[in-house]
Specification:
With about 200 residues, the protein is an alpha/beta fold. It has two domains: about 45 residues, Helicase, Ruva Protein, domain 3; about 120 residues, Dna Topoisomerase Vi A Subunit, Chain: A, domain 2 (3-Layer(aba) Sandwich), CATH 3.40.1360. Helices cover about 40% and strands about 10% of the residues. The protein is built from seven helices and four strands; from the N terminus they run αααβαβαβαβα. It starts with a helix and ends with a helix.
């Protein structure tokens, strides 16, 4: 294997979920690109380090100080959905029903994995929450997401007295997905479905 190829494989394997074989396949696919496509790709990678990358308010990807969601005057700035990652935000946006803004934590609390509350964007959230009417805890329905949601709820409630936060704290509904059979649903899903029934 050439040195040039080895260097590219080494860089691609720094990405999460990309091993040497996957990196090799990606590079082989890129060999079919036109010189213009490769040049454009290189320019976009170089642009990652020039100018803003993350929104200063919500920590979504941005081309300016604020992302296109935070800077949109039609979005309800007083309704904040808290998500773990930018990919969670993107999924919620695809649904096309949410008119508020977001706050990207940068992960979920996971002490075993070295992710403590101090590593997340929680202090920035507490500051933003002062002007919010509603905070929607949209963390993932797994152990780490639930732990993070409980921690955030406690932090927001304890900050409520000292920061004049008088808004509502809500959670995404949990329960059975459409097309799911009750017979095959796990206990946690069934418990949430019963708890949040309408």
């Amino acid at each position: 294997m050439s040195e040039k190829f080895k260097n590219l494989v080494a860089f691609f394997t720094k990405l999460p979920g990309v091993g040497p074989r996957h990196a090799t396949r990606l590079i082989l696919a890129m060999l079919d690109w036109s010189p213009e496509d490769i040049e454009t790709f290189a320019q976009h990678i170089e642009a990652l380090k020039t100018g803003p990358t993350l929104c200063q308010q919500c920590f979504n990807f941005a081309d300016a100080d604020l992302c296109n969601i935070c800077s949109n005057p039609r979005r309800n700035q007083r309704k904040i959905a808290i998500v773990e990652k930018v990919t969670d935000l993107a999924s919620m946006e695809k649904a096309g029903v949410y008119d508020g803004v977001y706050h990207v934590l940068g992960g979920a609390i996971n002490p075993a994995g070295g992710v403590l509350p101090e590593k997340l964007k929680i202090s920035q959230l507490i500051i933003r929450a002062k002007d919010a009417q509603e905070i929607i805890l949209a963390t993932n329905p797994n152990t780490y997401g639930e732990t993070t949601a409980l921690y955030l709820e406690q932090e927001l409630k304890s900050a409520r007295g000292g920061s004049s936060f008088g808004g509502q704290i809500t959670r995404l509904a949990r329960g059975l997905a459409a097309g799911t059979s009750v017979e095959y649903a796990d206990e946690i899903t069934l418990a949430n479905a019963l708890k949040h029934r309408k």
